[in-house]
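Please fill in the sequence for the structure shown.

STRUCTURE ENCODING:
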């Protein structure tokens, strides 16, 4: 996130992700962190975490349900990062009670929480666009309910990169390997985007090798954004990567798994 920007997490929990964003910024107090958390006690813990981070004044976590429509949390953020709850089941009728929900511009809500959550994340971005990082993996290849959303995001060229991390990352427990889906709704960048970067990081018990892999992935993303990524960019012992054209993905049933 750039200095002076607002970063939002609609599933803020104890605020770890948001605090990490502020702590890694180039200038202390330069990033405004806004979060929302369903559990009141957890939101209080999150506010304590934010208060001791390098966040800008005005940062904080609100207690509330992010799936419920609130105009205050629509179109305000420069960037979004979230590890939303996987396998959430919802009732689509809950969203229709308010009429046309402006958050669901890609496809109508379904019983799949993934379809709802990703559109809630994107709706929080400013109208001029911004980047969202989603931590999850079911959306990439899952059932037909997600297919319409994948198709809409691909047609708008809003998917920038998909990065699957090592399965043994302790901070994500023992479930599915954490996957970062990098979405970018900036209209100018989306118009120019022809390829999606796919990265897969293998498991390792070597902390130095893992850190080296993180740095290598960051270099790949930077080169991809600048249009300078090529096969000569290099190799890494535990990182596999390639770029794929949008047409290649759409002819492969819109599957996005690396």
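FILLED IN BY: designer on duty
SEQUENCE:
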């Amino acid at each position: 996130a750039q200095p002076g920007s607002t970063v939002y997490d609609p599933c803020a929990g104890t605020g770890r992700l948001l605090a990490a964003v502020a702590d890694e910024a180039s200038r202390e107090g330069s990033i405004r962190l806004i979060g929302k958390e369903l559990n009141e006690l957890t939101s209080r813990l999150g506010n304590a975490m934010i208060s001791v981070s390098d966040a800008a004044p005005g940062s904080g976590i609100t207690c509330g349900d992010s799936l419920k429509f609130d105009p205050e949390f629509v179109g305000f953020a420069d960037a979004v990062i979230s590890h939303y709850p996987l396998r959430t089941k919802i009732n689509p009728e809950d969203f229709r009670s308010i009429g046309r929900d402006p958050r669901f511009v890609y496809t109508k809500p379904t019983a799949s929480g993934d379809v709802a959550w990703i559109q809630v994340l994107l709706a929080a971005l400013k109208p001029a666009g911004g980047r969202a990082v989603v931590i999850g993996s079911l959306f990439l290849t899952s059932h037909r309910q997600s297919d319409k959303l994948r198709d809409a995001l691909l047609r708008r060229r809003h998917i920038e990169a998909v990065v699957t991390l090592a399965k043994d990352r302790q901070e994500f427990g023992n479930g599915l390997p954490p996957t970062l889906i990098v979405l970018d709704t900036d209209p100018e960048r989306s118009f120019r985007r022809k390829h999606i970067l796919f990265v897969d990081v293998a498991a390792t018990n070597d902390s130095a090798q893992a850190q080296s892999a993180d740095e290598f992935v960051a270099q790949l993303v930077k080169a991809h954004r600048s249009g300078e990524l090529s096969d000569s960019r290099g190799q890494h012992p535990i990182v596999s990567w390639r770029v794929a054209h949008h047409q290649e993905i759409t002819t492969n049933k819109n599957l996005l798994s690396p």
